[in-house]
């Protein structure tokens, strides 16, 4: 199924690249895009494995801290956020972690939780590296569209390599694949939006704003699926929104 939405995203982005009719940037930028896709795909696999062996309520908030990586890279390369934005960083990070936390009543052993934490930290590192790679693919003579397309190519390559290496039997109905296509398209639009935004603002700020997706997921689950938001999640959503406002205003 992951392969299906990756393919849908690749077809979507490739169509835009062809319609624009503009050649690729330098090869180094294509490599950055490919590495970003590979890191993201590996991170996603690590996250799924972490949720399988550990506690979801612990794993998900840890994975949501991936923006720490591009923030560190941005600050190391001369980003100078304002005092208001510094406060926004703290609020957004705390908000995302709290909003991502789920109430799980299933008992877990310390060993399973520890395994989940390690994989979650690894997935956060991979996701953060993917954001840095996307920025590098789009900035300084690069191209956001080509970078996003290479990200999709890498995602498919990693998925195919995994299927071949593990001899996993892939099956799926045509209708199910069609239903997954919008996910791949929306995900590609989000990736492209981040790439473009990272060339126009501080990557340390843009990456934190882009990490607010768990807040959107919690809000949609409450509105569309009528799920109940815990008090902790409500506090997290409020903190994340306040943090995003501070980052945008700074």
Could you explain how this protein is built, in words?
- By secondary structure, the protein is mainly α.
- It has one domain (2-80, 105-201).
- The protein is built from eleven helices and no strands.
- The N and C termini lie far apart (40 Å).
- Residues 107-112 have low confidence and may be disordered.
Name its key features:
single chain; 250 residues; mainly alpha; 78% helix
Protein topology:
Layout: H1 2-20, H2 27-53, H3 56-63, H4 68-76, H5 83-100, H6 110-138, H7 144-166, H8 174-198, H9 203-210, H10 213-223, H11 231-249
Helix pairs in contact: 1-7, 1-8, 2-3, 2-6, 2-7, 3-5, 3-6, 4-6, 4-9, 5-10, 5-11, 6-7, 6-8, 7-8
Helix and strand sequence: HHHHHHHHHHH
What coarse outline follows from CA principal-axis ratios?
A: globular
Are there runs of 5+ residues with pLDDT below 50, and where? 107-112
Number of helices: 11
